Automatic annotation (TrEMBL):
Gene Ontology annotations for the cellular component aspect, listed alphabetically: membrane
Biological or metabolic pathway of the protein: Secondary metabolite biosynthesis; terpenoid biosynthesis
Native source organism of the sequence: Tagetes erecta
One Gene Ontology term of the molecular function aspect: heme binding
Record CDD domains: CYP71-like
Pfam families: p450
Record keyword Membrane present: yes
Protein name per its UniProtKB record: Cytochrome P450
Family: Belongs to the cytochrome P450 family.
Swiss-Prot/TrEMBL GO biological process terms: sesquiterpene biosynthetic process
Xref: SUPFAM superfamilies: Cytochrome P450
Length: 567
């Protein structure tokens, strides 16, 4: 028996069993035009036909919509089932129940991602699998499992997942942080370490840092008593000044139309990803209609213009044949781009831009955020502040400025910085890693192309590792436990681990220590009166890099040294 409506492939038309008389009464046009075709083919039986438009008119719209939804749903269930049966051969990590199409996305919407994932891990275990749209995510929440991903199976997990924003903003993966390992990536990483972060540049880095800290201290010491300062803003400006001067020779300020801060913040937002990264078809549509694609293009244009300004300036310097002493990181990159190195590798112009992009996006924010959190915790904990101030002032005695040599004696300062990086891991989920082949973690199968997220924030706060007072700012915990940033056992991993670990792992903590030591040597710090009762707001904001939601505002009072030596 034929259904009520069917599609006749020969005449490319819908046909129906609805009696002609009813149709004719309602749609007089139904037979017109098609009659001739039937006669030509010698078809006598008068089977009523209807067009798609007419079909829409016959059925109430709710019935048609329901039919289409049911059809799509059954297709979805069918695909899911066939996927499931092909997955049944694998032992996959536990997952929360999924919702069709979006997967587990809804589980991540109510809180910052690192917090939501940490809560889920308490229910589903230290290794779990989430599905966001069509993409699988492996979530790692203990040191032991992080060890497997970043050490034992590092060769499998050292790739990075692809995304529209990382591709565009890194000149098609010509950077270090977002590109997957290759000989070129290795060479670029080597260049960054030797020409920007390594011991060869340490002297100039230190020289600039000390100068910038001095000028900040000098500025603060000239303020009238009881002046409230936005320390967050000052620290960010200072870090930018140091990184720019060491990397690019001078502080490149704003482009006409956009400030460097806007360019940086927008790049960080874009790097969080778009809908199409996880929902390929529908997401692409939304990226277009929501204006996300246009926003990415604008962000790239501004970032590229900023980087091009730096490159053009340095190219002009090279034409002038500046002396060796005057050369900075970008001059060295331009030099390296003119010859092959010993392994036959030659930097391209786009490589240079990719490297500058990483210094711009990776170097400023993480270092600034770490300083902001460290100072916030110090001020919030008067006991720690007093103990630290005593150590700093006793270690140095009466001097003109605190230098790196004095800092080597400050053991409590090192513990304070470690504790701040533990409680406030600046990049709480590191940068995502991706598996390049099938492997097993913790007895579970991990399929190629899975994005691995290490919850460094949760791991560093886990009471199973750090005891009942894991949430407390207590630097003394490091008196008996020697946890080093390189990961060791991965109890805390603010700089990641394995071959993708942060190349700033040595420079960044030393920078933090020097800045904090100088701020506390010269000044006594207090919360503004209006905040004394309600306490310091420690809410977090951001995703890739998490900073304080409310800037840190404090009142500095120059320490009353008896001899009145001025900074
Ligand atoms: C307190 C300061 C800093 C923190 C907390 C930090 C943290 C991190 C983290 C967590 C990663 C990802 C590691 C992983 O995926 O396993 C990373 C990667 C990276 N960081 Fe840093 N970072 C800091 C400072 C710097 C500085 C000053 C630079 C200098 C330019 C820098 C450049 C990079 C680069 C290029 C990568 C990518 C490495 C790769 O994928 O091979 N970072 N950083």
């Amino acid at each position: 028996m034929r259904p009520l409506v069917w599609f006749d492939t020969k005449y490319k038309t819908f046909k129906t069993n609805i009696p002609n008389i009813i149709l004719k009464a309602n749609f007089s046009s139904i037979h017109q035009g098609k009659e001739a075709a039937r006669k030509r083919d010698g078809v006598n039986k008068q089977e009523p036909t209807i067009s798609l438009m007419e079909l829409f008119t016959i059925f109430p719209s709710w019935l048609l919509t329901t039919t289409i939804v049911l059809f799509m749903f059954s297709m979805f269930v069918y695909t899911l089932r066939s996927n499931r049966s092909s997955m049944a051969a694998f032992k996959l990590p536990p997952s929360p129940p999924t919702i069709p199409i979006i997967g587990n996305l809804h589980k991540l919407l109510s809180k910052p991602r690192h917090q939501a994932l940490w809560e889920l891990s308490k229910k589903y275990g230290p290794i779990m699998l989430l599905n966001i749209g069509s993409k699988p995510f492996l979530i790692i929440s203990t040191p032991a499992k992080a060890n497997q991903v970043l050490k034992t199976q590092d060769h499998i997990f050292c790739s990075r997942p692809l995304s529209k924003a990382t591709k565009r903003l890194t000149y098609n993966y010509l950077d270090i942080a977002f590109s997957s390992p290759s000989d070129h990536w290795r060479e670029r990483r080597k260049v960054l370490i030797s020409e920007f972060l390594g011991p060869k540049r340490a002297r100039s880095f230190n020289y600039v840092l000390v100068k910038e800290v001095e000028s900040m201290v000098h500025f603060l010491s000239l303020l009238p008593p009881n002046t409230e300062v936005n320390l967050s803003k000052m620290l960010l400006a200072m870090v930018k000044e140091v990184v720019c001067k060491v990397g690019f020779g001078k502080n490149y300020r704003d482009l006409s139309g956009s400030s460097w801060e806007e360019i940086l913040n927008e790049a960080l937002v874009m790097l969080n990803g778009s809908l199409s990264d996880n929902f390929p078809w529908v997401g692409e549509f939304f990226d277009v209609i929501s204006g996300w694609n246009r926003r990415l293009e604008k962000c790239f244009r501004n970032l590229d213009a900023y980087i091009q300004m730096i490159v053009d300036d340095h190219n002009n310097d090279m034409i002038r044949e500046i002396s060796e002493d005057e050369k900075d990181f970008v001059h060295r990159l331009i030099e390296l781009s003119s010859t092959e190195n010993a392994s036959g590798y030659q930097l391209t112009k786009e490589d240079i831009k990719g490297l500058i992009m990483n210094v711009f996006v990776g170097g400023f924010d993480s270092t600034f955020v770490a300083m902001e959190w460290t100072m916030s915790e110090i001020v919030k904990n008067p006991r720690v502040m007093q103990k630290l101030v005593n150590e700093i002032r006793n270690c140095t005695g009466r001097i003109q400025k605190v230098n790196e040599l004095d800092i080597t004696k400050m053991t409590y300062l090192k513990m304070v910085v470690k504790e701040a990086l533990r409680l406030h891991t600046p990049a709480p989920l590191l940068i995502p890693h991706a598996s390049s082949s099938h492997c097993q973690i913790g007895g579970y199968d991990v399929l190629p192309g899975t994005t691995a997220i290490i919850n460094a924030w949760g791991i560093a706060k886990d009471p199973n590792t750090w005891g009942e007072n894991a949430d407390e700012f207590y630097p003394e915990r490091f008196e008996n436990v020697d946890v080093d940033f390189r990961g060791g056992n991965f109890e805390m991993l603010p700089f990641g681990g394995g071959r993708r670990s942060c190349p700033g792992i040595n420079t960044a903590p030393a920078t933090l220590e020097l800045v904090i030591a100088n701020l506390l040597y010269w000044f006594d710090w207090e919360l503004p009166d209006r905040l004394k009762n309600e306490g310091l707001n420690m809410e977090e904001e951001g995703s890739l890099i998490v900073q304080k939601k409310v800037p840190l505002c404090l009142v500095p009072t120059k320490h009353n040294w008896e001899d009145n030596l001025t900074p």
